[in-house]
Give the backbone structure.
Amino acid sequence: MGLDIRIPVGALFSLLGLLLAGYGLYGGAALAQRSLGINIDLGWGVVMTLFGATMLLLAWRARVRRR
Amino acid sequence: MHPKAIDWIIMGTYFAVVLGIGAALKRSMRTSTDFFLSGRAMPAWIAGLAFISANLGAQEVIGMAASGAKYGMATSQFYWVGAIPAMVFLGVFMMPFYYGSRARSVPEYLKLRFDEKTRGLNAITFAVMTVFSSGISLYALALLLRLLLGWDFNTSVSLSALIVLVYIFLGGLTSAIYNEVLQFFLIVFGFAPLVLIGLKDVGGWQGLVAGLHTVARARGFAPDAWLSTWGVMGSPHENPMGIDWFSMAMGLGFVLSFGYWCTDFLVVQRALSAESMDAARRTPLIAAIPKMLFPFLVILPGMIAIAATVHGGASGLTLPRQADGHLNYNMVVPLMLGRYFPNGMLGLGLTALMASFMTGMAGNVTAFNTVWTYDIYQAYLRREASDAHYLTVGRVATVVGIALSVAAAYVTNRFNNIMDLLQLLFAFVNAPLFATFLLGMFWKRASGHGAFAGLLAGTAAAAVHHGLTLPAGAAPGIKGGWIAVMHLYPSPMAQNFWTAIYAFGACFLVTVGVSLATRPRPERDLVGLVYSLTPRQPTGATRWYRRPAVLGACVLGAAVVLNLLFW
């Protein structure tokens, strides 16, 4: 198909996850006020980064196996 | 809502990836099959995620949240009674004929099974419908962007149309499918925190239950009315939808859902892109698994919002009222995004909403360019041409389809009623379709004349039924009763379900009657198109969970469990 979909999905979510987590880390408590005391940017950013990394890992593994 | 730099960066990143996908796929679009059917090379899981995403436009997301607030848990019947059984039926029983006949579109299947006129009727109504649905998506997106970001109508319409145009023009169906997969994950990641924070706001699940009891009592229903499904469907007066169990099971569960999920080319096209017969059959079955969990993502926010509004929550979230004093249910999602999400997450939530509007539009455009090229252009305008020619026609059709959607968006902006009228007409045209496919696939005697007459009769029956009935409290006109008011339904939804039941019934009976009076097609022409004349192909799958029948049974079993849990 020319392009493994897991690469753009993984890239997008790792990138967005890092952006969010970084922003949450820097913004801290001020941000958390809105979301009822949870620093959702940081927490969810980490979750998204892990998801993105998993997708990239799967794509990489599939590529190695095809060789 | 005050987006900051971080939110714009998140939105920008998404758009860059979307356009990047289109550019990366450009080189692999060599033939018309690549462009229209992704070269029939999609793995089942990708086709499956695209299958549900194509339908998950933002009208769906915003509409389901609104219904969750208005009707509560019973809204989940659109998933657990409606979509899931139909998707299983499509995968297990119907896909062998769609995929096996090598038809490139749903209208083309009708041509192979019945005749040219049945195909023509279906192709033309479908093409018109997709253009307008795509226009409505675009219009709704523009409204949302104005509300949330203060963009004006022209800017939002042209920017979104341009992005969709570029990625379909370059990458065809593959590009649309890839973006649908991205959108699927964006919706999940963008909405799950909304539910989590919302639940915290109303005091967890216990708090939500208490809140919804208050909502139900305040409106004169039994305390559980916002939390049950079948339990409050004994009579139309026990639930806010005004629906009884029979019209629910028959109207929504059977006629409307099967009619949509099993015959609409917008979703079926995703399965036709699969790499093999087995993958095509697994596509709707894999799609059904996340689909049945979606009520927790898209309906629950509405239930949270109404509980917070009526019963009160920690943050003081309250739904706004419209000019006429009724709660504005369509604001559930924008309101919760603005209230609960800090900058950063706000960007993600907005991106998810925009993505879902754009894929809703892209899905219609890819279905349109395929049906236009194969079923109208190739069938009636230029029969024998090179494949390269049809590929070019497909690209031009993409541009034209988007231009027409933009026009439709402007028409909707000027005359809101035109859209209501059109959607009504589409409902009349669509309601009988499933009877035609059911008889076509499972009754070898059904003839082309029968199918054509049945479709017309079904559409007429839908129109007449609508003209003779009215939902309680509505004025005769576009809501019904434009011939005479013979029957009052408790709600528009009840009227809608019964319109579908009558349309299906009329189409079924007339197709059978006319088929018996006309000559059937010779049996040798129907091999591969009709159940009883097609040899069973053993599935190539070796593991049990990859066999369509087993997977289908598991999915249905899980749907039954959900029905029981939220009875």
